[in-house]
Give the backbone structure.
Amino acid sequence: DSNTGAVSYKKIPASGLMEALQIGIGHSIGSIAPKATRDILMKDFSELEIVHFPALGTSTTPAHRCKDFIFKTYAPRAFKKFRKEFSIEADDFLVSLCTHRLKELSNPGASGSLFFLSHDDNFIIKTITRKEAIFLQKLLPGYYLNLTQNKKTTLPCFYGSFLYESMGKTIRICIMNNILPSNIKYHEKYDLKGSMYKRQASNKERMKSSPTLKDLDFLEEHPGGLILQPDLYDDLKRTLERDIRVLESFRIMDYSLLLGIHNISVNKQETLKSRKPNLETRPYSDQEIGYDQDYAKQVLDRIGSKRLKDNWKQDDSIPQSVPRAPPPQEEAKPRTVQNKKRRKARSADAGGSAAERAERAAVSTSSFRRFNGGTLAVNERGEKCLIFLGIIDILQSYRLLKKMEHSWKSILTDGDTVSVHRPGFYAERFKNFCFDRVFKRGDDSSPQVRRQKS
Ligand code: ATP
Ligand code: CA
Ligand code: CA
């Protein structure tokens, strides 16, 4: 329970688990990184690496304060390849995940999974069930195919999958990208499935400072949907359709579209009114980002990476107040000469808040995985918004669900609206919801789009 600060999973306190995970991940990533790369072979997807971590340490593993544990790495070579595809450097990955305390996220989901967030917000660690872990391994070849064919994919980026075993308990985790970096303020956040059945946030969820709302809440708040520029809408539609086709081919269901909305117009008014520095520009204290030099050094010692330690030394002067996350990548290429001019003018004020930078990046591109900094949209009130999105929770396959569960749920409820349903039906409904209700294709003459372009 997050109020008492004593979170646990399978009766293992989260804090101790976190430390063991960091040691295990550090060792695993650190040992595969220097190995020569070669083409991925089919057998690499089913590889399993097993390392023992006795508390006293061995010649290859560090001594530690946790109980003895075993750490397994699924498909180390394949995930190394994925990380490369996502441009994640081993050192950056390790500094993000292993040198600072992780933050615990409160999970609005019902499954009871634990979520940890890296101090810099880039990575999410999620505990998964045995079934999900097995399924993820089966999914890897198809997932890899999609990565190479559908570069703008909105499916989760999986960076690793591991198993921790200690005192007769087993915990499985996967590491993925954070779709909603918290240096941006989200005025609304939705977990959307395209189902209407019980798809309304609970009162308890609404009480939270940044609640995750659901389908019915979206329809109530945005009966007109979110309007995208035509080329952006078409691009998003194509990308999502391809992703959903892959999910359907694996008979995956119950996934969601996670959608964060930063309302630019409202944010400006709020900032003016409160005269307080807004969320994105405020520097964060070491305490807030869980920065702890001694701890960081201990972990680096454990990992035993010389290069990391050298990097660290250079960093020693920085951490008085570290920004919470790196600025959104502005790798988007301007498409027209006009854009180029605009960009040049803009680059004069390179500063500004994370949201402002994201907005500039969003304006200058029509594509969307090219930058993870957000996409421009307009709501029914004509307010400019930055939206952040991705598909999450894709490790439930209908193939592995007991037949009983399905028929039982269909009898209790309307079979057409319950979430646990045929994957093809789920996919169709999901798509229809996304492109009929959530996103609307602005046409070039509509006032909203003209306003958005100006
Ligand atoms: P359930 O199976 O009950 O739906 P779960 O434990 O499998 O829940 P998810 O559905 O994966 O959990 O995620 C729950 C919530 O956690 C999401 O609604 C979202 O708010 C947050 N979340 C999950 N994955 C991500 C991600 N990659 N980036 C940002 N937030 C995420
Ligand atoms: Ca879910
Ligand atoms: Ca789930």
Residues 8-177 form a domain with the Phosphatidylinositol Phosphate Kinase II Beta fold (CATH 3.30.800.10). The pocket of calcium ion (ligand 2) is lined by residues 109, 256, 393 (CB under 6 Å).
